[in-house]
Amino acid sequence: MNIYIKKYLCILTVFAFGFCSQQVIWGQDHEKDFTDYKNIELTGDIPRDFTVSTNSKFERDIKKIEKKNKREVQKAEKRFYEESNYLIDDMLLSGKVYFDDTITRYANRIIDTLLKDDEELRKEIRVYTVKSPSVNAFTTDDGIIFMNWGLIAKAKNEAQLAYILAHEISHFQKEHIIDNFRESTKMNQGIGVYKKSSNVERMTASSNYSKELEFVADTAGLRIFLNSDYDLNGATSLFDVLSYGQAPFANEDFDYNIFQVDSTFAVKTDIVGNIQYEEIVPNDNEDSDTHPGISERKSKIEKIVGKMSNEGKSEFLVSEDKFAEVQNMIMYELPKMKLYEKDYPMAIYLSSLLLKNDTLNRYLRKNIIKGIYGIAKHKNFKQYDDLIDIYESEFLQGKNKYVYEFFKEMSPLETSALAMTMAYHYQQEYDYNDLGINKIIDNLIQDLVIIHQFELEDFNATVSDSTKYGMSGQINFDLGFVTDEDYYIDLIDRIITDRRVIEDRLDIISDGTYKTFRNDLHKNGYELGIDRLVVADPFYLKIDLRMQYPLDYLASATAKENISEIIVNNAEKLDMKVKSLNTGKLTKRSAQKFEHISFLNTWVEERLSYGGIDMVSIDYNKAVELSKKYKTSNFLWCGIVTAAESDPIGMTKIAYGIFFPPIWPKIFGPKRYTYYYSLLFDITEERPLVYDYNLVKLKDNNATLNSNIYYHLWQMNRD
Amino acid sequence: MDTLKYIFLVFVICFISMNTIEINAQSPGYQGKNVYISYDATPRFPKTITDDSGLDDGSLVDSTFVVNGDSSFTVNLKHTVGVHYIFTRNMSIGLEYTFHQPRYFENYFTSDIRNTTFKVKATQFGLNFKWYNFKKRGFIAPVGSFIEVRPSMYLVDIEKDNMRTQPSDEVVFTEVKDGYTGLGLSVAYGMQTVWAGRLVPSYKVGITILPNLYTFSPEASNGDITASELPKMAAGRSIGARSGFISNEDRGVTLDVTIGLGILLF
């Protein structure tokens, strides 16, 4: 699957991006109050691009196929429309694409300004923004432009954004996507001028062709840009922004005092003083197969605009305030995105930078606590080294290294204690009833008891000088607050009493008890007594390994639309109340439902990424809200993957077939597999209740689906 | 016979006992429907195609068959009706009744220069155990492939005409009926699914062992066949038993290719 998605995203990615300048935009005047910032949600009317089925889009697009082309090319184009519509829909419905929020509305107003004299073209272009920190934008063959939040965050002014959009519009206008695909098909299949080319020559030709299209889009986009009154420097200075795309939005010293929540905490300055960092250097993007070097592109545009007058032009035509507001919003979103990426040090760093000008901001403080908590949990479960490997394999330039190095040296116990202390301080100072923060404290107390073998008196001791716990000595701390509150004392008692149960759940028992439990479960099934649950966006994928392109996109999309009905029908036979949230059935007015699906998919993705770590989810409070709305905390993620593969016919089979005609379908048909999985979570307890699957060597007909779905629901339902 | 009945009883008790523990984890069946009735048809193909003629060249008796009417390609069906209960996600137990009355008759030209023709009517009462391979292949009863074991008791009624001197003479079954009782055991592998949430089509391939019925008596080739052995041999061969499955000479084994249709009740 990933191969195909990557392949297509390569086709789609026609404008990439660079890195940001070090200019700090945050802190500019803006209207929005960020004190208790709420993350942006999917709201408003859902556009048709999201609600029209993949099959309908495919039927619409295949009419565009030109009959005059060679049969191979026609076939490839049909395949292109099938694949692209599926993958674009997959992206649109991922929950990361925004359509009616402040950021997207602003991007559309820039398009309005650019195309004020071309109403027809304006009608064809739809701009959506993507919740992604990467600096990127791309367009599709039918006029959708996706613009990442990371790109908007890095721009210095509106004119730069306008030029990016103009560039993408020109890709659409000149049909570069399908054109590039047609050319790639000819190259891959050795058609026309590529008939006698070697593989290396074809690859080089393919790369050169893509780069040529970029130059064309740069100059064609410039013509659109020049029709507006945007500052000409926007077109050239954008390339400077792109060359710093990987860096964070600011490069400032890290203030360790944000950890100083009470008098017991102290960072030893000698350790901090030894941290060395590399200066941020621009990236010219020379290694790209599809895009020319940034400096080369910049110089070409400079040659054109250098002679032009900039009189009457402006960096901002829509609104400078709105630009600042939008950038601020994205910058407040970035730490959360980094938390989801498990880039905890960066989340802490970005939050700390914003906190300098917004010292009482709860949202930022919580992000810092969650960042430290994430590090502590991964350290407690001995998985932080894996994260360090990832961090070090990616971009690590600039002063953000202070945070990475600081936490690299911290012991698991120190990190846990720091997170607990900061969470407790937040609880006392800002919000005693924040469920997510309270749960983080409870969860870390459990780690200290179960993993670090803490007893009650250990919480009351200052352990900074102890060597018992492998301390780095970077901080001093005191967890005495735990022994001051009856709630925590009771909690520790319960944890000690349930030690075996917790160890069992965390799969950290080595004596085989857990394995026995799993075996019993597999033999007898679950007995959960659940009569109400929510099914979150069931998954369906059909694969036919006999075909050149095994993924059957259109059949998968159709099956996905219908699977909810099958689930609900089976639940009704068990008298279960099941609400199925399916992106295949969205309507214009179902933005709230879409937001819920988006959140749930993010939630489960996050949950699964933790493996065996019992992390409190990043948006725990929202999960609680959702469970209240649906009157159940039981949420089910389930899906079906079917496959068919060839099964050669030998003499033995022919002989069987002669004697036993009824088994012809079995003998002469392909091998078929249907894989059904269920993943049931209690999203408030954050605990998996069911993880079960069934692999059947049968076609995914109604009997197979009903049998599996009913059986899994029945296990959840029975007492 | 008492010993056989005793063995049969023990056999049944063992099967039930083996599966008692699984009953605690009883599966819901197909969308909660646990009971279904079934009708199975097992064709017996024309004897002209399938008959192995059985008797050696040196035999003093010969075997042929006669048909009511002219067709020697008559297809006969063995009919089975049953009621099944899905006990677990991977097992069902059923009670079955089988009826089989071949439309062709075994005819023997014996050493006393007479044609002896047998008309056979067989019935079986059996238990049906089906195992669906849940653990490895994920089949959930009653959908998927299964292995079936069916112990049964059969009753064979035989009418005899031994008055003819020519095979072409009219067959008149005038003699008093004779009968045999015995135990059988069927083993089959098949596939089953559900259509429209209610119908249960299936097919299976298997064998039935009928240890008390002969397909060929060794005495026959010596011309020493007795009056009591000939009907057993005729009965076995009439209902489709073939020699060679167990040994080259005696016990009856039938090869069954069955197509069935069931209805899920509740």
Structural notes for this entry:
- The complex is a heterodimer of chains A (719) and B (266).
- In chain A, helix 4 (71-92) packs across helix 9.
- In chain A, 53% of the residues lie in helices and 10% in strands.
- In chain A, the strands form three sheets. In chain A, strands 8, 9, 10, 11, 12 and 13 form a six-stranded mixed β-sheet that branches.
- Residues 1-31 and 465-469 of chain A have low confidence and may be disordered.
- Chain B contains five helices and eleven strands, in the order H-E-H-E-E-E-E-E-H-E-E-E-H-H-E-E.
- In chain B, strands 1-3-4-6-7-8-9-11 form an eight-stranded antiparallel β-barrel.
- In chain B, a hairpin with an 8-residue loop joins strand 10 (241-242) and strand 11 (251-264).
- At the A-B interface, helix 25, strand 13 and helix 31 of A face loops of B.
